[in-house]
Amino acid sequence: MAKELTKMDKIISLCKRRGFIFPGSEIYGGLANSWDFGPLGVELKNNIKRAWWKEIVQKRDDVVGLDSSILTPKIVWEASGHLENFTDPLVECKKCHQRFRSDKIEGKKCPDCGGELTEGKKFNLLMKTHLGAVEGSQDEAYMRGETCQGIYLNYLNVKESMRKKLPFGVAQVGKAFRNEITPGNFIFRTREFEQMEMQYFVSPKEANEYYQEWKDWTFDWYKNLVYRPENLRLRQHEKDELAHYAKEAWDVEYKTPFDDWSEFAGIHNRGDWDLSRHGKYSGADMNYTDEETKEKFIPYVDEVSMGADRAVLLFLIDAYDEVETRSGGENAVHETEIVLRLHKNLAPIKVAILPLSKKEELSQPAKEIYHDLQKYFMCQYDETASIGKRYRRQDEIGTPYCVTVDFESLEDKKVTVRDRDTMKQERILISELTDWLKDKLD
Ligand code: GAP
């Protein structure tokens, strides 16, 4: 009997079939746990990153942006404490040589073959590489394990060049690399991924107050964009879970089909750990003098850290919905249809333009509308298959609005706009369509 597909199987299959996410290096048999974002996936991920940047940088006076290098010298990671502490406990099966995180398995035998396991050892997650033609310790460099280190390295540059006073934040979006022992669950845990991180520099006295604000900010950011807010929660780290740099940490968790409550973002009070250590290792003076009180101190850091790929997964899981056929009369075959209930700001395609017939008298004005709308929104033009099938194609990828051009349009200069969620159809004057959509999609 065929195995019943899980929700994750269905989401992974939809992602491949509709151009969201493909297995990495697939034509060569694939590189395990690497994924490539296809035409719709890159739109979705860019929309997520844009939505984050707009709220955290564009709309604020106290946060600025940065784009720092991925490659960094070893001393950065000695100073940050990652070379010493950024480890997972590793055990290996003596029989099948499969490796596991010892804190994630139960019992003392290999979960795959029942073989005996080695003693646990610490496995560092940083990825090392070599620069230039000659290999040697002089040329050793590290791919950053978290993007925020680039922010600390540029703290003084940003403060001076932008004439910033505390409190202020620096945000950046970019790739990070970790040699995870057990990557998996689709794009949830990979070895190459993107982070969206913001470091807020504050006086030690105000660190707690701002920490609470950023915790709420992070939770609200997700809450405003999800369809099912009841699946979101904040959870505080226990003392033994805290990373080496954290005084306090909370995670934003979402209820996933694969692991119940799972971490999607972290908000950390990092104290003066990072700036003190980089000051010590580099010799740079990280002290800040308060102009009014003349107090001198190393700023504390409140951090917002989110995975961009992980956010893509959250919004896909959250938006995935199955409904019975919604088009056709009572006698229509009621098959299961997929609707991606993505927030309008995140949907990869905002508007689909669908002429009711391929005949030129309809396709020509429909293409004109399409080219007009393309200046403002990501659009798709589709004239193949029945209108019901074309609506279903758009529902599956989460397109909020479908615009149908029919023979009546030639007379009354109006088109039908269908809403993905309510399925309500409205006749809108073609001359007013752009403004109508701008209003709905902003
Ligand atoms: N700068 C703090 C930091 O990096 P983290 O909890 O290790 O903290 C922050 O990571 C976020 O980065 C996580 O909440 C997750 O969204 C994302 N992330 C971490 N490891 C990941 C991985 N292997 N694959 C995908 N995303 C990951």
Report on this model:
- The mean pLDDT is 95.
- The longest helix is centred in the first third of the chain and has 20 residues, at 39-58.
- α2 packs across α9.
- The chain has helices at residues 7-17, 39-58, 74-79, 82-85, 148-153, 155-161, 207-223, 273-282, 308-319, 360-374, 387-397, 407-412, 430-441; strands spanning 21-23, 35-37, 63-65, 71-73, 87-92, 99-101, 121-124, 127-130, 140-143, 168-177, 192-202, 232-236, 248-256, 260-271, 288-289, 296-297, 300-307, 320-324, 336-340, 351-355, 379-381, 401-405, 414-419, 425-429.
- It folds into two domains: 7-76 and 143-316, BirA Bifunctional Protein, domain 2 (2-Layer Sandwich); 342-441, Rossmann fold, CATH 3.40.50.800.
- The protein is built from 13 helices and 24 strands.
- The protein is globular and about 75 Å long.
- The strands form seven sheets. The protein has a seven-stranded mixed sheet. A five-stranded mixed sheet has the order 21-20-22-23-24, sandwiched between helices.
- By secondary structure, the chain is α+β, with helices and mostly antiparallel strands.
- β5 (87-92) and β6 form a beta hairpin.
- The structure holds glycyl-adenosine-5'-phosphate.
- Glycyl-adenosine-5'-phosphate (GAP) is lined by residues 146, 148, 178, 180, 189-190, 193, 195, 197, 263-266, 303, 305-307, 309-310.
